[in-house]
Amino acid sequence: MAKARKRKISEGDVASNRYASHRYELLERLECGMALQGSEVKSLRASGAQLKDGYASIDGGELWLHSVHIPPYMPASRDNHEPERPRKLLVHRSELERIAGRTKERGWTLVPTRIYFSGSRAKVEIALARGKTLYDKRDTLRKRETEREIQRGLRDAER
Fold first, then answer.
1. Which is nearest to 65 in space by CA: 55, 52, 51?
2. Is the pLDDT of residue 9 over 70?
3. Which helix (H) or strand (E) holds 26?
4. Cβ–Cβ < 8 Å for 42, 76
5. DSSP 50-75
6. Residue 103 lies inside a defined structural domain of this protein
7. What is the CATH number of the domain that holds 65?
8. Longest Cα pair distance anywhere in the chain, in angstroms?
9. Band of pLDDT at residue 7, cut at 50, 70 and 90
C-alpha cells in the first residue's frame, strides 16, 4: 500500500486552512499583520501552525485571532509562548470599521485562511465568510464532480 502524501500548500505559505472553503462561503479576503513574540516567529518558520478551528473577532476596537495553534519553539524552552493565546492582528482603521459593519450582519464571521511570510513579516489572510448549510455543501461537491467529468471528457476527446 502506498504511503499517504501530505497535501502541498501554495509556495511561501506556512499554514493553510483548506477546510474553511468547505465549511464557509468565503466572500472577501483581507491581509493582516500579526503581533507575535520572537519564539512564535521562529516556530512558524520551523514547523508551521494549525488554523482549522481558528477565528477572528473584534474586541475593543481591535482585531484578534483566536484558537490558532502555533507550537512551542523547543530551543526557547524557558521563554516560550503559549500555543493558543489570542494574537492581535494589525489592520488599518478604515478596513477594521468596514469589516466590523459587515460582521454585525447575521451569520457572518471572520475565518483565517492562511499564514505566510511577506519578506520578514508574518501575515495572515482573513476571509469574511458565511456558514454553509448542508445542501450548500452538497451543491458544491456536485458542481466540483461535474467539472471534473467535463475536464476528463475533454481530455479523453483530445487523445
1. 55
2. no
3. strand 24-34
4. yes
5. B-TT-EEEEETTEEEEES-B----GG
6. yes
7. 2.40.280.10
8. 63
9. low
